[in-house]
Amino acid sequence: MRHLCATATLVALATPAMAEPDYAAAVKADYDRDLKGLWDWFHRNPELSFKEEKTAARMAAELRRVAGMQVTEKVGGTGVVGVLRNGAGPVVLVRADMDGLPVEEKSGLPNASTVRQVGVDGVEAPVMHACGHDVHVTAMVGTARRLAALRDRWQGTVVFVVQPAEERVGGAKAMLKDGLYARFPKPQYAVAFHVDAERAAGTVSAAEGIQYSSSDSIDITVPGIGAHGASPHMGKDPVYMASQLVIALQGLISREQQPLRPGVITVGSFHAGLKHNIISDQARLQVTVRANDEEERARLVAGIARVARGVGELNGMPADKMPVVTVIEGTPTTINDAALAGRLNAVLATTLGADHVAPFTQKGMGAEDFAYYVQPDTRVRGYYFSVGGTPADVVAAAKAGGPAIPSHHSPQFKVSPEPAVVTGAVATTAVVLDLLKPGAAS
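Structure for Amidohydrolase, as requested:
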């Protein structure tokens, strides 16, 4: 969710904070009355990617309560689509992801998850909303309610997409493959947000360019020739070869990549062997690859295959026992339409106050499969923004050397649903109202 070079223009910093729009108070009242309890339910009941049956059913029920909403379930697996029409005009897609993660929650929250679930991989695991998707779906409900109540201020169609499996970067692709852009009104614009634990609550930020990096997950199998640990010369040690590979892969970044062109190769998993004195016949690596453009992405993926084969050849492995590299899933770079982002950043500065719209700087190489909705061949213009999820004093204390803020995907992860849900709903409502205001320029 961060980029080293791309920044969003901080709109009119010297301007005093603007008065909140009238619907902001309505969103806050809705949170106090109903959305708070809805977030609590989602947080207590997380579900794994493509297994979000209860979450999808609850979201479908909530969207059906919105006057005029047409709801379709089981799109791309567990996905839900709600269509809210209000006369002729542009179409805006609003997306929220809904899956949790296989993490045992240790946040200390009174509504901490105790759920366990068998995932699509057949493995039972504890489940936690360790990335804030409970905030996203709750805010979507608040947004849908506000837009239905404000029909006199907009004209067109809003398509609400409740997406499965963002964490496996497969949900967006699955919904598109199932006809999202053919079975439902095709959007001119796509909008989404992500809560950010490192950002102060009540603030938002969006890049006028790259918002997230690409991501590819790669499995590497390194064959060996098994032997007794006391006689390594009688075999070929896959642990030794895989260790060489782990080190050699970093050369693709440090020695072959242009210094000012970001990229990451991380080996997240290394498994081999079962006993102290046995040289196994196989090692397995799991690798994530990140880049900020398709050319660099392709170069890194191809480089991994080249280096893996080189390690096999270096160790004298026969042709039928070369390392096997498999790209199993991935997502392109998420790039905001620059002109659209500039326009909507200004809208949010007016809506929330200029001091609540922060400049965007990419600090890492997180990824998002929202990118599939806005690929160049779709001709859909995208706007993805971040919403702060941690009280400002806690963020300030962490920056001053105090306790670190638990990261996304951590067992200790937690965000403040108020104001994160309210800010997300108010900001999304403001963006859609601007895109669909009668006579709005595209």
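DSSP finds ten helices and 17 strands in the chain.
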